[in-house]
Amino acid sequence: MSPTAIAANTTARAPDDHLAPVYAQFALDIVDASGVHLHTRDGRRVLDLYGGHAVAALGYGHPRWLAALETQARSLLFQSNAVPLDVLVRAATRLTRFAGLGLDTVFFANTGAEANENALKLALKSTGRRKVVAIEGSFHGRTAAAGAVTWGAASKWYGFPQTPFDVEFVPRGDLAAIARVVADDTATVIVEPVQGVAGAVDLGAAFLSALRARCNETGALLIFDEVQCGMGRTGQPFAANLYGVTPDLLTTAKALGAGFPCAALLLSAPLAAQLKTDDLGTTFGGGPLACAMVEAVVDIIESENLLDNVRRLSAQMRETCIVGPVVAMQGAGFLAGLRTRRPARDVQRELLARDILTGTSGDPHVVRILAPFVLDTSHIAQLAATLAALPS
Ligand SMILES: Cc1ncc(COP(=O)(O)O)c(C=O)c1O
Q1: DSSP string, 199-249
Q2: 96, 111, 189, 274: which has the fewest C-beta neighbours closer than 10 Å?
Q3: How far is the CA of 102 from the centre of ligand 1 (A)?
Q4: pLDDT digits (tens, 9 = 90+) for 178-223
Q5: Is the dihedral of CA 295, 69, 23, 38 positive or negative?
Q6: Residues enclosing ligand 1, CB less than 6 A?
Q7: Ligand 1 atom nearest 111 alpha carbon
Q8: Measured in angstroms, how far is the CA atom of residue 197 from the centroid of ligand 1?
């Protein structure tokens, strides 16, 4: 997450709190949360439509999520990947079936950036090429490789003296640029099918299909970064399902553990077949607790029909929330952008003053909604009524 994306409406931190001063923070003093509400020290109950950067997909204190955490913690808190465990196999099986994309091998990691780092490494190694193509507006994480393919990182925060490979960016929606930039020397193209930090920018089926086709022509591998848009957020398991475009590698995190930190890299059969012992590794990735939570999250999403809920409520949002300062909506499902006539940070501040937490984005006129999948119609109605009462 880029600090600039949430820099609006923040409060100054105490100079002696011993924390690295790298985060802008909301002016919100949260003590606890339950369901889809945050509770503040001064007694406010705030509807959370931002979900901790898209993590809290099941809201707070979901009973089955808590039960899975406790059961696994009591049974086996941790073991390394050096021992075979059923819970790891169950999580990988459940996740690949949920995806239904034929990407049936999983490498579990800890963060979105780490999953992307490993995806890029595999793609470069597998093709033996050294150029990576990314999309303007992208955000892929803070590590050396993930930051190298993040739009604007070099001028803002990258910090490494050079990128680990050559990088070229394609403008969003520019089909001619795909044909020009993705070439026989391209190892891989990495893309967020719906860009998150950029402001819920839906790249659409035509652009994603053109990337797929050009990768096929040139022998480049296609990586979908679904760290933010995946795991049901668009109303489908992954945006790949939504657009009918299957990548060779897919990364996901955030909602994957719905609050338990974990990430996953899903691989096509040909890529999985190239892997051998020691090619990838991590201490914490794919630990039993993380895997129990992945299994539980998929189970809850499926058994509570939450994809359907996201589709219904995001349609309600589109129908009712283009009011007050909002002139249009963009994005997909619960990765939604409310395009505002006035600066987004002003609208976000006014919503927060009326007990609704939303996010901003790289676009100064987009308020970002990353709502929990367990929302109900009354919450969308509350958002619509609150927006309608704001100055346009
Ligand atoms: C699309 C995308 N990729 C990667 C990342 C990085 O994930 P993490 O912060 O878990 O490393 C993010 C974080 O916001 C993201 O939105």
Answers
A1: TSEE-HHHHHHHHHHHHHHHT-EEEEE-TTTTTTTTSSSSHHHHHT---SE
A2: 274
A3: 24
A4: 999 999 999 999 999 999 999 999 999 999 999 999 999 999 999 9
A5: positive
A6: 1, 53, 111-113, 116, 139-141, 192, 196-197, 225, 227-228, 253
A7: 10
A8: 9
Using a 10 angstrom Cβ sphere, with 0-12 exposed, 13-18 middle and 19 or more buried, the burial of residue 131 is buried
Angle at the Cα of 325 from the Cα atoms of 324 and 331, rounded to 5 degrees: 110
Q: Identify which of 28, 39, 37, 46 has the alpha carbon closest to the alpha carbon of residue 386.
A: 46
**Is the full-model pTM beyond 0.90?**
yes
Cα dihedral sign, 202-192-248-262:
negative
Ligand 1 mutation target, pool 4, 116, 228, 370, most atoms within 8 A of CB: 228
Instruction: Using the atom order of ligand 1, give the atom closest to the CA of residue 253.
Output: 10
| C-alpha distances in Å from residue 389, one per residue of 272, 329, 339, 381 | 54, 18, 16, 12
**Six token digits for residue 53:** 């950067």
d(CA 68, CA 15): 39
Give yes or no for a contact between 10 and 359, defined as CB atoms under 8 angstroms apart: no
Tokens of 191: 């893309």
What's the rounded Cα separation, in Å, for the pair 142 and 58? 26
Give every CB contact of residue 372 below 8 A, 6+ residues apart in sequence. 36, 48, 51, 56, 57, 58, 59, 334
